[in-house]
């Protein structure tokens, strides 16, 4: 025998539906962006007439062989400086692994009053593993300031970039730099570095190296 809903059930259902619809209306009133986006979703979506070229935005040109050409005018570099007059820190470039064309730029804070042994800060620059260099102006100035302000020996790693050298090439170069520092082959590192106080750090993509090596 089929049971028909009672009058009480119908009233309860009607009240529940009313409360539900009222809640939606209140929510949309409190969140007008949701209401406007819902209306926009009902309109046809047309493709962007001027899509963004990611290569152009990144100032790089893809080559047929899988490499890229980096437009250097957008990524200015500066040479190291051994002069006290023009910078907060002295700096020099030292080969890390000639076969891999990797090297490091070392920053020694200038001025008197520094302790004989300085903390060592190994730094990996940012750039999505694709762009920039240890010689890039932005990272050169950052490391020079860090060495001066922190009173530390800063070692910026010039690691290999993708797509010419896929990961973990960059990680390997940072790890090799850490081993190179431990060996104390460079005069500045050997005479001024405090090997008991060594920090591995980086910026943006460069910070992935310390995180990966530390995990």
From TrEMBL:
Assigned EC number: 3.1.1.1
This protein's UniProt keywords: Hydrolase, Membrane, Transmembrane, Transmembrane helix
The keyword Kinase belongs to this UniProt entry's keyword annotation: no
Root EC class: hydrolase
Keyword Calcium among UniProt keywords: no
Domain Alpha/beta hydrolase fold-3: 121-208
Pfam families named in the record: Abhydrolase_3
Molecular-function GO term, any one: carboxylesterase activity
Parts of the chain that traverse the membrane: 9-28
SUPFAM superfamilies in alphabetical order: alpha/beta-Hydrolases (SSF53474)
InterPro entries per the UniProt record, alphabetical: AB_hydrolase_3, AB_hydrolase_fold, Carboxylest/Gibb_receptor
Similarity comment text for this entry: Belongs to the 'GDXG' lipolytic enzyme family.
Protein name: Carboxylesterase
Organism of this sequence: Opuntia streptacantha (Prickly pear cactus)
């Amino acid at each position: 025998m089929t049971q028909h809903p009672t009058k009480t059930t119908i009233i309860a259902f009607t009240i529940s539906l009313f409360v539900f619809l009222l809640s939606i209306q209140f929510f949309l009133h409190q969140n007008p962006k949701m209401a406007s986006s819902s209306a926009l979703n009902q309109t046809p979506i047309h493709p962007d007439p001027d899509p963004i070229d990611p290569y152009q935005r990144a100032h790089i040109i893809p080559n047929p062989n899988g490499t890229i050409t980096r437009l250097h005018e957008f990524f200015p570099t500066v040479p190291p400086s051994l002069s006290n007059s023009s910078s907060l820190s002295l700096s020099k470039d030292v080969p890390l692994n000639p076969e891999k064309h990797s090297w490091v730029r070392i920053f020694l804070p200038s001025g008197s009053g520094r302790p004989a042994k300085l903390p060592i800060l190994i730094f990996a620059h940012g750039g999505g593993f694709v762009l920039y260099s240890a010689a890039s102006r932005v990272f050169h100035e950052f490391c020079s300031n860090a060495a001066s302000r922190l009173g530390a020996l800063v070692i910026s790693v010039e690691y290999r970039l993708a797509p010419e050298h896929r990961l973990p090439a960059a990680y390997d170069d940072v790890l090799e730099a850490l081993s190179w520092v431990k060996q104390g082959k460079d005069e500045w590192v050997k005479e001024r570095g405090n090997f008991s106080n060594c920090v591995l750090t980086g910026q943006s993509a460069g910070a992935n190296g310390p995180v990966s090596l530390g995990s």
